[in-house]
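Feature request disguised as a bug report, sorry. It would help if multi-protein outputs had a clear separator. Right now it looks like this:
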Amino acid sequence: MHKINLQAPVAYSSKHNVDYAERILEELRTYTFPSHLAASYTPEIRREIEASIAAFQAASARYNKKRISRVLINDRPLPLGRTRSAEIKMDQRIWAQVRKAKPDIDFIEQQIRSLAPGRGRVSALIALRKLLDRAPERVEAFLKAIVESDSQADQDLAEWARISLQEIALMRGGDSAQVLSEAVSDRPVRYRTDQVFDLTMPLFFECRAITQVGKLEIETQISPLWFTEIFGDAMAMIRAQTFENRLVLEKEVAGLHPDGSPHFEHFPFFGETTELSPSVHRHNYWASVSRPFYASGKVEDVSGGQPVYTDNPMTFFRLAHTFTHARYAVEDQPMPESVRGIFFGFGHAEPQLLLKKAGNLGVGDFQISPYINPHTGEPANTIFFGTFFGKLQGLPETGEVALNQREVHCDQDGRLDYLGDGSMSPDPIRPNDWH
């Protein structure tokens, strides 16, 4: 593990009142893949990594110069529909404010106050943090009020607010040893010794997808709850022994299988960790996976006789900072209490479907793809990127914080074990497509 001074979070810009993860996102504009990691990946995955870096940096330049045709950006409430829940529509309304120069902060704060405890309320709080560059004093004051008023009524939300205040302090140049001297949670910790992973942390993703349709580039903003519907409910899974160089991401997708069973996908990541301070770690990881691609444009849909291309080498980028604490240590390895980071990848959205739905994609409508679409032989028509956040989850029934309470559906290498019992059972709908 490399060690350097904790300067990275505040060195990106003189403007310290910016969301921590957004500052990490700026690294992609000048990102260089560490050459000493090349041997960890096959030549096919290495080419995918190189294409990913070039594609993001090209898109970032166009984005910053506002050359993207923002014709379907979804900056209004999602249209009413039978399949879209009121909770997701509200989440999209809240996150639509994040990209505005003059956001309606009153609206977001009111939703945080009125929403019931749960993922929707946390998502709204994360959205408010994104407004730090436009209203720093107000955002910070609201976060402090949440800590004071919700410490017992909604402990998870109060802990999210404490994490946010830690990030603000670090962005402004605070000493990490002082800022992170105490964990944000003082609840008892539950750890299960009989699990595949030592930590299973639920995540929130907010995504920006840019799809090429003819000469247009269509940008779709995807809020965390909408992301979960399209891509799945994601969690990061860590083993203490490989904390510095490996991680597996699991996604549980509901509503894809016609029989109502869940669909699981896994992404094993490899890379390196840099110690920014004893409590802050920078994880530079790329996934190495082989995945199916469905010519129909919808995941697992072969109803029209369209082919499925299996075992396509793909990658997925993850750069993250974790805040670790000794109270969660496993095998003398301090484990993360929270994470914030960025992601990037290639994908495919059927243009006709995208236009027909006005960007309002549903489960299975978007596929993660290699750089070259295996069906058309052309470059993937979509790039997607954004920021993500995670925190150890509280167990309301016991009052404990859980390190690895969530069930997993793979082995330690990220190979599908659908039933999660060690039998390595396949996907029940497309058993030959997923591994």
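(second protein starts here, but nothing in the output says so)
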Amino acid sequence: MPSELRYPSAMRDPTEKPLAIVARLEAFESKPGGRLFIGFVLTTLIVAAMLLWWFVFGFWGTLFDPGKPLGISFDGRNHVTLVVVLVFVIIARRWVKREEERALAGFGADSTLSREVVAEVIRRAYISTPRARAVSISTGILIGIVIIALTSGEPRSYQTLAAWDAHHVWAVVNNVLLFSVMVQSAFYATSALKALDFILGAISEVDLLDRDGMARIGRFGFPGALVWLVGSSIASTLAWGMQTVWPLLAILFATLVIATVSLVRPVQIVRVRLSEAKEAELDRVRARINAAKASALEGDSKAVSEASLLAGLIAYESRIDSVREWPFDVSTMVRFGALSLLAVGSWLGGAVVERVLGAMLE
């Protein structure tokens, strides 16, 4: 037998090594505390780079202010917060992707699609297209630059080159990265919803009594909503002591809208099918109830057996009628409501905390 063909290293698939690294990273992330550790290391590295940048360009003194809480200046606190938000979004988005992939694979197992087709649909949902990357980067650049000017209280100052020092450049780069990742996450969320719509459309029959299955659909968008709400809560500290906060409040409103859409949109996809299936099943069982009732009342040969079915049919009708067309379970709604209140409360309470700490230090 001929020996096994061996390709020289120069002819190996160039994506083999990167894919192996990604696989190892995902394996480490899946371990308890893995994501937290990666987030901590990444945050530490970026903050260290920021401090080195501040030191090299002579802005070290701007990080400290004895009149501010903990002696940290407004700029220092905000830049560290931006780094934390950036790392959180990156790590959390990877977690959301993993959860969505698991959910889509589970729905795919219940569909008429082959395993290979489901895997390909899921894979394509998380491919970043050139158009998506271009829109993400351009939007990140636009928002990253504009929001600094709008929240500074002196937007016209950034029309001159004097304002574009190393301090400002770091802030712009950090903002551009943050908003680019956020916009890219929105693209991934849209693609995931398209994949969900396609897979759910291939499920031949809706089991109205499968409440666990319905709840799984209701929970599909919760990880994404969780990321937007928690990220918004972390970012709320950016408003402490800021001269102009309305641009940040606009972003808060946008994150709440996106979080709500992330939760509700997956259910909207299946709601029409649920409503149609429920109506059809109710029509069928009511027709059977009417037939059993007529047979029992007429006293024909099947009267006894038909009469014995009535109680079960009526109970079944009640069970089907109680099926929610919006398949959210109570725990999902409670958690989403609590996180929404946390996000809003963190922004409103931040101003109070700032003033209390300021009064204590006076």
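Even a blank line would do. Unrelated, but nice: The chain has two domains: 17-204, 206-362.
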